[in-house]
Amino acid sequence: MTTTPPAPPKTRTIMRPATVRKSTNPAATWGPPVAVFVGFLLVWYAVSYLILDEKRRFLVPPPHEVLAAFFDPKVFGEIMLALSRTTFVALIGLAIAIVIGVGWAVAMSQAKWVERSLYPYAVVLQCIPILALVPLIGFWFGFDYPARIIVCVMIALFPMVSNTLFGLQSVDRGQRELFQLQRAGRWTVLTKLEFPAALPAIFAGMRISAGLAVVGAIVGDFFFRRGDPGLGSLLSTYTSRLQSAELFAAIIVAALLGVVIFAIFGWIGKRVVGRWYDFSAN
Amino acid sequence: MSIATPVAPTTKTDQLLHFDDVAMTFPNGTTALSGVSLTVNRGEFVTVVGPSGCGKSTLLRIASGLTPATEGVTQVDTTRIGYVFQDATLLPWRDVQSNVELLAELNGIPKKQRAATAKDAIDLVGLSGFEKHLPKTLSGGMKMRTSLARSLTLDPELFLFDEPFGALDEITRERLNDELIKLFTEQQFAGLFITHSVSEAVYLSTRVIVMSGRPGKIVDEFPVEFPFPRDPEIRFTAEFAELCGKVSHALREGHS
Ligand SMILES: Nc1ncnc2c1ncn2[C@@H]1O[C@H](COP(=O)(O)OP(=O)(O)O)[C@@H](O)[C@H]1O
Ligand SMILES: [Mg+2]
């Protein structure tokens, strides 16, 4: 019997199969990063003691001096207070960036003309050097928390807009038609189809924005150096006073804040959509 | 409900779907269908076979109202239309129960009632016990059953199938064919079924329509007389083989 050859089934890769790499051996899990860390410390010591002579050692103070500076009660208190303020600014800024970003993307997803009118501005926002605007924002909004939060939002906003829009628009055509066949209205399609389908992309955007929000919270403060000092002011102060051990301690705390916020949002994303979406695939 | 103008008056109450000289030319100039006339009556299960790209999916999309035809009259005499796509198109964040409830939900049926309807449909396709399973944990066949159940909740009078089993393995496909026949005999819908497989077409249907290559035209039509419910063994009979041969032959003629 001759028929036309059956067409190859349309495969649509929604998610790649997860490469399961859960090893039960803790040594295998923690060994490599710990080894890298130890190597890093060794290089650090080598730079401090072998490359730099004593007069220039302040450029890269050895790890134990940084640790000592960190646990100096005065410095510790200073850094922790600054950390709490920076965290506050970053979280508020991130929350605002999420709300504005998702709202912006939803508006654009509703009509092509809205997208055409608004998307260029999202790109502009991404392209202009925000640093150049920071002093201006200070003039306009004062040099305290509101201005810091605005800088933070501007830096963290773009990934929320672009990821949400991508998520909303990547809905499977068949699924759209399913809704269309039941004459579902725009709002129904948005809430029951597009928004849930976009959640993985939204959470991916949140993770990126979370890291940027920390950067944003530090940048504004670093330039303004007014009001309650956050990590930015502190970095600026330590730099000008050549307190390099303290500076290193503050830098490490700032880096850790970024990592922790990034991890927390990754975890929230997994909790919310990990049930049906496989993040490990990308 | 009539889609597209002009609207022809319904003549026969048994008629559920009627195409009269329907043609479809897409804005980019591709003519997918030309001069298609076809009627599907209650109690009929019509399958359409044709080369890839000849406009079979387009025909179903026109019947469902997703895409209006550019020419001819399309008349659909029911609002209860089931539509099963080649992909199961399940929402991955909803479990089986909730996926099956979706269409009723979109039609504003209250929670209690749609839960009960969904439960019946799930039983009907043999998925009871899997209500709480997410699509990613289901096999291809089970996804397709879920998709079938979802359409069944509409209690369709006209059921459109676009190569629903094309991506499944042979054994699963044959099992689902038998279950589809069972559903057809029990639920009394009219079916319009697209397939690539000649034997599937002959096995399932009361009538096989053969289409030519693009632009798709109906080139031949074969009534299938085997009684319902169909005995799987008829696949091995000489009559079955002969009919398959005729359909294949017509396909080849239409293709060249
Ligand atoms: N929206 C569209 N715009 C332009 N061409 C289309 C569109 N949809 C389908 N086609 C074309 O129409 C022809 C028939 O498509 P289709 O009905 O999907 O074929 P089949 O289901 O028989 O494989 C194909 O050549 C396809 O490329
Ligand atoms: Mg098709």
What does this structure look like?
The complex is a heterodimer of chains A (282) and B (256). Chain A is mainly alpha-helical and 282 residues long. Chain A is built from ten helices and no strands. Chain A has a single domain (69-276), classed as MetI-like fold (Orthogonal Bundle), CATH 1.10.3720.10. The longest helix of chain A has 39 residues, at 186-224. The model of chain A is unreliable at 1-18 (pLDDT under 50). Chain B has helices at residues 56-64, 96-106, 111-124, 140-152, 170-187, 198-204, 238-255, and strands at 2-3, 15-25, 31-41, 45-49, 71-76, 81-84, 158-162, 190-195, 207-211, 218-223. Chain B is globular and about 50 Å long. Chain B is α/β, with parallel strands linked by helices and 256 residues long. Chain B is built from seven helices and ten strands. In chain B, strand 2 and strand 3 form a beta hairpin. The A-B interface holds A 1-4, 6-7, 9-10, 12, 14, 172, 174-175, 177-182, 184, 188, 192-193, 196-197, 199, 273, 275-278 and B 49, 51-52, 64-66, 81, 83, 85-87, 89, 91-93, 102-103, 105-107, 134-136, 166-167, 196-199, 241, 244-245, 248, 251-252, 255. The complex binds adenosine-5'-diphosphate and magnesium ion. Magnesium ion binds next to helix 1 of chain B. Chain A: The chain crosses the membrane at residues 30-52, 88-107, 119-142, 149-168, 197-224, 245-268. Chain A: It is a multi-pass membrane protein. Chain A: Keywords: Cell membrane, Membrane, Transmembrane, Transmembrane helix, Transport. Chain A: This is ABC transporter permease.
